Structure formats: C-alpha cells, structure tokens
Amino acid sequence: MDTAAKLRNQSFIAAMAFGVAAGVCNAGATPGNDLLQMIFAGATSVILACFLGGFAGLYLKTTLRWLRGAKLGDDEDASCGSIICGCFGAFFGVLYPFVTDQPEHAVIGVFLGALIGSAVGALPGDLFPMTMRLLEEDQGE
C-alpha cells in the first residue's frame, strides 16, 4: 500500500473516531439520548459531510476552471485533500462546542467541521497530489 493510500485510510478512520466521540459527548450532555443512536448519528454525519463537502469543493473548482476557460484537469488525487482536511475539520468541529460551552451540539459541530474541511481540501488543485508524490518519493529512499 502506498503512502497516499495509508494517509487516506488513517484520515478516514480518525474522522470516524471524531464522529463517534461527538456522538458520545452529545449523548452524555443531553439526558434522555440513547448512546448507540448518538454514536451512529455522529459517525454517519461525518461520512455524509465529507462526501458533500468534497463534492461541493470539486464541483466549485471545476466550475471556476470552466468559467475561466482553463483546461479541465484530471482530479484523480483530489480525494486525498478532501479526506485529510475533512478529518481536521471534524477534529475542530468536535472541539468547537466545548470551547463555546455547548457540548450538546457536538454532532452538529463535527458535521459542519467535516463539511467545511472537505470542501476546502478539494479546492487547492494540484497541491495535495504533488505533496503525496513527494511523500512517496521520500518513503522510497
């Protein structure tokens, strides 16, 4: 397995863990919530947010390229940036409700964080593919 695939897998697992943590926090902060239901809601919301954010970012990037008249590039590695930034967004989305002293909104925070992170991660164009290639070359030495 190459470096990019390992990084994508680890980021996806970490984002899911942040979703589960948000579900546990939400269930603990609000009386009457079922723990298993909140864990499922947190994990599912992260998956949905990463997908929607990545799709929105790639769609926006392609639309802006098309409007400029630029060549529509091959975005084969754009999912790396979307997944990695979605993981960071989910992390900050879990932290935000605690900073604002509203832990009952942890699932909403992780959803919004992963959505924004994935959308921003899909925008940079060739930055993440070039970084992944450099990481793979560095591992080969």
Structural notes for this entry:
The chain has 141 residues and is mainly alpha-helical. The protein has a domain of 71 residues. It has 5 helices and no strands. Helix 1 packs parallel to helix 3. It is globular. The two termini are 16 Å apart.
Give a concise summary.
This protein has a domain of 71 residues. Helix content is 81%, strand content 0%.
Q: Mean pLDDT, nearest integer?
A: 84
Return Rg in Å. 17 Å
Distance between the termini: 16 Å
How many helix segments? Answer: 5
Q: Major sheet: size, sense and barrel closure?
A: none
* Helix percentage: over 70%
Tell the overall outline.
Answer: globular
What structural category do the secondary elements indicate?
mainly alpha
Helices and strands, in order, run as: HHHHH
